[in-house]
Structures
1.
Amino acid sequence: MFIDKVKIFVKAGNGGKGAISFHTEKYIPNGGPDGGDGGNGGDIIFVATKSQNTLNEFHFKKHFRAEDGTAGGAKNCSGKCGEPLEVFVPCGTIVKDPTNGNVLVDMFEDGQRHVLLKGGKGGKGNARFATSKRQAPRFSEQGEKTEEYAVELELKTIADVGLIGFPNVGKSTLLSVVSQAKPKIANYHFTTLSPNLGVITCRGQTFVMADIPGLIEGAAQGAGLGHAFLRHIERTRLFVHVVDVSGSENRDPLEDFEKINGEISTYNAKLKRIPQIIAANKMDMPDAEKNLARFKAKYGNRYKIVPVTTIIAEGCDTLIEMCADLLAKLPAQEPLQIEPSILGEKELKPRFAIEKLDEGVFEVTGSLIDTMIRKIVVSDNQSFRYFEKVLRDEGVISKLKKQGLKDGDTVIIGDVEFEYTD
Ligand SMILES: Nc1nc2c(ncn2[C@@H]2O[C@H](COP(=O)(O)OP(=O)(O)OP(=O)(O)O)[C@@H](O)[C@H]2O)c(=O)[nH]1
Ligand SMILES: [Mg+2]
């Protein structure tokens, strides 16, 4: 089993409820409010790791929920914040929103962390609502409830060198002699059913080589294993195009070479621009020398051609040195150029929302409020008048009135509360 595309479900923790409580102590009647705030819910954090190279584990576990914050308590005790949940994905995992196909984040680099979902905010306890006029508030805020989201993970392996070629030409044999990787090798087509990665050190450079299942003519239309595995070499900087130059399966190696290049550009025209080195394999077999000469005559001025006999590792050092020299000149790989986004932030937060906390007490929250609070100094009279004007212009006041706001009622906005006058 090899999974490189999967849908999973993620949910950040809910915020805990704020407490309603009053201070009680012997001989102290009517103690003040002391209900603490609820704790914030845990975030969902994606972490890229190079110690995984498939999405297989998501076949078994598809639901990820971060811990909820707990409710606040008496004596101004705040609730405990929920633990964030880390979801480990292999480097090169692209996280998409399945509702519109948008890329949310490219988990490119080992150790990269991204908060995909923020935990719900804990509610304020009643102690926070005490004022000189309202000394015993009997209300508190609910914690923010979070929603579950589906996300699609798609692995586009990050390797420096991609091995391409027909089945059975010796791609896996090559990887096995130049790296510590132990891919399955056998004398039949499609021995390799999923990508293998090998790490190579040469001339002071360390790079990763990816071996993918063999391609055949018509792969773009689904023949053989299709072209889906090409996803894993889309991000490589260099191709080593392995050909059976002996033509041991009665195909012409020059035709093989053209066909594979055709399949690659049908899959994605950009892949045509990735430089290629031709590894002319199976030089120990009859006809190999003759075909190598034909290769050199036809492609010698456009491509570097290295004769190899991978089965005995002959010529492989030269090939790897050539790869290292070329990679040193090629630009580094880059993640997708997108602004990583936090799921649900826009949908979760309406521009403004009104909640009636108690008789004559209203709270306004939302994205409009968040931005205003950051900008306005409420203790400043002028600034506050501006604040009121925006509330009127944006229709907040008229909506509050519809919900029963009267002269003298209290309006709570962020950490500010004021008495409403018509
Ligand atoms: N004579 C000869 N045989 C080789 C050479 N290199 C590989 N082979 C044989 O070719 C067969 C296929 O080798 P693999 O490395 O599995 O080929 P592959 O390209 O990975 O094949 P798929 O995974 O099926 O696409 C095996 O039987 C190898 O032993 C070589 O240099 N000379
Ligand atoms: Mg193979």
2.
Amino acid sequence: MEFCPKCGMRLVLSRKAANKNVLVCPKCDYRKTINKEELTPQKVVNRSTQEQIAVIGEEEAKINTMPTVKIECPKCSHNEAYWWMVQTRGADESPTQFFRCTKCSYTWREMA
Ligand SMILES: [Zn+2]
Ligand SMILES: [Zn+2]
């Protein structure tokens, strides 16, 4: 949306040329010619959701949104588990990886 620089009225689109648009002021006679490309809204950039895997605690873990990995459950030997990372207290330490069996919900941490 653009406004008239002279009187502040909202400019109205008035098509005149094939590949150009003309904006005209309904109050005074101001007009502005613009390329059509400038009217096209910018494309929304799709950010990869893979980059946004949140570090979540075990308590607030949202099971249905968590990624899964092929790993054997130590309890029931099922071969798929949800996984997430938890940052331990020391900021220097690397985060601990947790797994939760998709079948029996047994939860265990990765043994480094
Ligand atoms: Zn005007
Ligand atoms: Zn299991």
